[in-house]
Design goal:
This protein has about 230 residues and is an alpha/beta fold. It has two domains: about 120 residues, Rossmann fold; about 100 residues, Orthogonal Bundle (Arc Repressor Mutant, subunit A), CATH 1.10.10. Helices cover about 40% and strands about 20% of the residues. The chain contains eight helices and eleven strands. It has a five-stranded parallel beta sheet, with helices on both faces. It has a four-stranded antiparallel beta sheet with strand order 6-7-8-9, covered by helices on one side. Strands 10-11 form a two-stranded antiparallel sheet. Strand 1, helix 1 and strand 2 form a beta-alpha-beta unit. Helix 6 crosses helix 8. The radius of gyration is 19 Å and the shape is elongated. The two termini are about 30 Å apart. About 25% of the residues are buried. The mean pLDDT is about 85.
């Protein structure tokens, strides 16, 4: 799971430090807060791949944070694992019904939590579980920086490679031009929105050789998505 962004929302300083250490050892990029309201801001700023969310936190409860995240289309699919001392069945059901993907009761071992995070990411973001990304007949070796379609090598420029990688890591997700600029070019980029369209055209031209179906779907007034239905 090297490079996966993890947001830890936990107000127990000792536990937060312990978990941060263990996840950083597993090469996760860990962001921590003890505050529910700040957690919502950090999600918008950093767009984590997975969220560990304590039930009892400052200003806004974990349940309310979870509910807020599930209401937004941008975070509706972000994996959330609830951390809590509450072990009652009704509390577990409430957490899951609010939108949590998993639930772990304190005390727990960091190893078990890491295993659960990996399991959730494998289900929701399989790209983070390995070095090879596959969608249909498109295959990317993220370490060797090679792309193939139907077994034939495809030459991509650096920006097109990053763009395709982003789509492959989020299959079927719709991304606006603004979101793509932030994710592929970086939040501090001064590049114009129409630049995204230019690179999308270049990417399409490269991967749709030999009359291959177009797997990049254009959604009017919304953006783009990697989608087998696009063909």
């Amino acid at each position: 799971m090297s490079g996966a962004k993890l947001l830890l929302v936990e107000d127990d300083a000792a536990l937060a430090e312990l978990l941060s250490w263990h996840f950083k050892k597993e090469e996760y990029n860990v962001i921590h807060t003890s505050d529910g309201e700040e957690a919502l801001l950090l999600v918008k700023e950093h767009r984590p791949d997975v969220i560990l969310l304590d039930w009892m936190i400052e200003n806004l409860s974990g349940i309310e944070v979870c509910r807020n995240l599930r209401r937004s289309s941008e975070t509706a699919n972000t994996p959330i694992i609830m951390l809590t001392a509450r072990g009652e069945e009704e509390d577990k059901i409430r957490g899951l019904e609010t939108g949590a993907d998993d639930y772990i009761t304190k005390p727990f071992s960091p190893r078990e939590l890491i295993a659960r995070v990996k399991a959730v990411l494998r289900r929701v973001r399989p790209a983070l579980a390995g070095e090879k990304l596959v969608f249909g007949n498109v295959e990317m070796d993220t370490v060797g920086h090679r792309v193939k379609r139907n077994g034939k090598a495809i030459a991509l420029g650096p920006t097109e490679f990053r763009l395709l990688r982003h789509f492959l890591e989020h299959p079927n997700w719709v991304f606006s031009r603004e979101r793509l600029l932030d994710s592929v070019w970086g939040q501090d980029s001064d590049i114009e929105l129409r630049t995204v369209d230019v690179h999308i055209r270049r990417l399409r031209k490269a991967i749709n050789v030999n009359q291959q179906p177009d797997i990049i779907r254009t959604i009017r007034s919304a953006g783009y998505a990697l989608d087998t239905e696009a063909a």
